[in-house]
Amino acid sequence: MATVGDTICRNQQDQLVPAILSDTNGNAYIVWQDHRNLDIDPTHYMADLYGQRVNDTTGKPIWTAGGIQLVSQKNDQYDQQLLPDGTNGFYMAWLDNRIAANNTDIYMMRVTDAGTKLWAGANGAGLAVTIANGIQDQVHMTRVATGAMVTWHDSRTAGDIGGDLYGQMVFANGTLPVEISSFTANATAAADVVHVSWTTAAEINTVGFELFRQRDEGDFIRIAGYTDIASLNARGNASIGASYDFIDSHAGGTSCSYKLVAVDNDGSRKEFGPVIVHLSAPTTMSIEQNYPNPFSSTTVMGYSLPGQSDVVIRVADMLGRTVSTSVHPAQNAGWHTCTIDGSTLAPGSYFVMIESAGTTVRRRISIAR
């Protein structure tokens, strides 16, 4: 490389704030903010993102002269962060104002050694990691076995001075896992009719849902799906979540278990559950595994009572010390659910103990954050 430096990009308007990263062969990736499109479209009033790969021996550009256009959207794309993908390319995350100049979101892209843009979507738009309300900024990444973990500062919660921290797993194929915050099934007053419902915290890249039912000890069979029921189509980029309901009018048996499958745009599938609903009166006291488990704030647990009685629900740590207690007088015989609030507890394992009529049943639960 010349003592006066070699040209990486010399184009109209400004090229500034470069980020640099070594590739697996010792060469370098450089991504910068670029104003060259300002004269073409004044809505690009700050910067687009362009990139170049530079030879480690000669210092000369490998890709197209002037760099390749990585992201060119309305308003700003900036504060780009680069991370090796562990093979032949890199992950890039950036702050993006394409929705509104005062609403900063986070997008990602994967770029190969050849300069091919992956996860780019329509018109090189990139993968939306979060498009929640408010400002998302201070983005950071690290590589994990299945892709990349992204964290950021987030001001979506109104009145929460100082903001919060959020994170998102992004798989190496450019998909994001759907986040299910609740999944329940409850018997109705009508015979053999069950109300199944679930709520998502986020479902970016999710195309729809499928529901499977198991009667008693039989096999799970598909009973509904987004390809035949419109209400099971995902909401698209629902970064703030959505709620869904399904009425199973042919439940049958003494109990039914339900599994939920979220299907992504690329066909990948993620399973949740099962959750159990009982259609006949219990003969013994029992406690079911909570869902979700592990959980971060709240979880739901089912239990049965063979007769009417008072119920005490205790949560204890692994040393047997009680951390919370609730009393529920004169509960009827049948199947019940309770919500366990772990939002104030430290991460780790706990026991939930349900006491009724001299009998105690317990389950181990896990809190993870």
Structural overview:
It is a single chain. The protein has three domains: 15-171, no CATH class; 176-280, Immunoglobulin-like (Sandwich); 281-369, Immunoglobulin-like. It is built from no helices and 26 strands. It has strands at 15-22, 28-34, 48-54, 68-71, 77-84, 89-100, 103-112, 117-118, 127-130, 136-144, 147-154, 164-171, 179-187, 194-202, 206-215, 220-225, 242-248, 255-264, 269-278, 286-287, 298-305, 309-317, 322-331, 334-341, 348-356, 359-367. The chain is elongated.
List the helices and strands and how they pair.
Elements: E1 15-22, E2 28-34, E3 48-54, E4 68-71, E5 77-84, E6 89-100, E7 103-112, E8 117-118, E9 127-130, E10 136-144, E11 147-154, E12 164-171, E13 179-187, E14 194-202, E15 206-215, E16 220-225, E17 242-248, E18 255-264, E19 269-278, E20 286-287, E21 298-305, E22 309-317, E23 322-331, E24 334-341, E25 348-356, E26 359-367
